[in-house]
UniProtKB/TrEMBL annotation:
Domain Aminoglycoside phosphotransferase: 88-234
Source organism, top-level taxon: Bacteria
Cross-referenced InterPro entries: Aminoglycoside_PTrfase, Kinase-like_dom_sf
Pfam family, any one: APH
Protein name: Aminoglycoside phosphotransferase family protein
């Protein structure tokens, strides 16, 4: 797996924005470390450039950007649509995209009616026209192989004292009763949802979008905006399903770190967070 030096990073930004306005090309740059998969370079007031950290994900990155560009304008909020083609330098891919106005709301906040509207709009996106652009459910932690990876790679790394709780959480997700599938963003919380003036303004990072059920996005909203809010925006059955998904989040994050061969210190931190989370839970 390659690694990205500052020189390569700014060179690929130059290539990605070569057809943008002179003002955009001259704009002040700010490198933002966003998540484990991407780096974002903000061009002050003009655009953003999204760069994949892992050369192995270039094809998927291009596919997901095509998905973003296919989101209907009628969705009613901003998404980071392309301002030019995806480009490649030294195996790394990048694409210039529109800025999404606003900023993330603090953890535990977010107007319930806005969150409910966001979930309704997201789940209303037609999946048939974009089926070939969607990720596999649970792609973040292995997709179709997620259960095997949890059993063989994740559980053995946890403290013996929490392995039974972790296995129960995994098994609950395996046995979650199928319900109607809809479009699911897959990471609908934290720094991916922007707000302006108390209203939701836009959504970033559509890499995990898939056909799933409402509980996928509901769980993410609950973790960031507050679990107590869920009873105001979903029924009891949906909240129960969301809790099943939430209970595996730390395990999914650990699986991601393992699968993407993150540095040992990062994997150790993911193990520690998973151990700590299960030690505090009583299912």
């Amino acid at each position: 797996m390659g690694s990205m030096e500052d020189g390569i990073l700014h060179s690929i930004v130059d290539i990605a924005i070569k057809d943008l306005s002179p003002a955009a090309q001259a704009a002040q740059r700010q490198v933002v470390e966003i998540g484990s998969a991407h780096i974002v370079v903000l061009l002050h007031g003009a655009a953003a450039v999204r760069i994949g950290r892992d050369p192995r994900m270039n094809v998927e990155m291009r596919k997901r950007q095509e998905l973003v560009d296919s989101i209907p304008v009628s969705i009613g909020f901003h998404v980071p649509r392309s301002l030019g083609p995806a480009v490649t330098l030294n195996e790394f891919s990048a694409v210039a995209v529109e800025l999404v106005p606003g900023s993330p709301c603090p953890a535990g906040e977010g107007e319930p009616s806005e969150l409910q509207d966001l979930l309704a709009r997201m789940s209303s996106i037609p999946t048939e026209p974009i089926s070939g652009l969607l990720a596999e459910p649970l792609a973040f932690c292995g997709g179709p192989e997620w259960y095997r990876i949890q059993r063989e790679e994740v559980l053995p790394r946890l403290k013996q004292e929490v392995q039974r709780q972790a296995m129960d959480a995994i098994w609950a997700l395996v046995n979650l009763e199928p319900v109607k599938e809809v479009f699911a963003h897959g990471d609908l919380g934290g720094h991916n949802v922007f707000w302006e003036g108390g209203r939701m303004s836009g959504v970033l990072d559509w890499d995990l979008s898939s056909r799933s059920d409402l509980s996928t996005d509901l769980a993410c909203v609950g973790v960031w905006n507050g679990w107590k809010q869920l009873s105001l925006i979903a029924n009891a059955a949906e909240v129960r399903r969301a809790s099943v998904r939430r209970n595996t989040f730390r395990l999914q994050q650990l699986a991601f770190a393992i699968l993407h061969e993150r540095p040992p210190a990062e994997i150790d931190r993911a193990v520690s967070r998973a151990n700590s989370w299960f030690e505090k839970q009583s299912f």
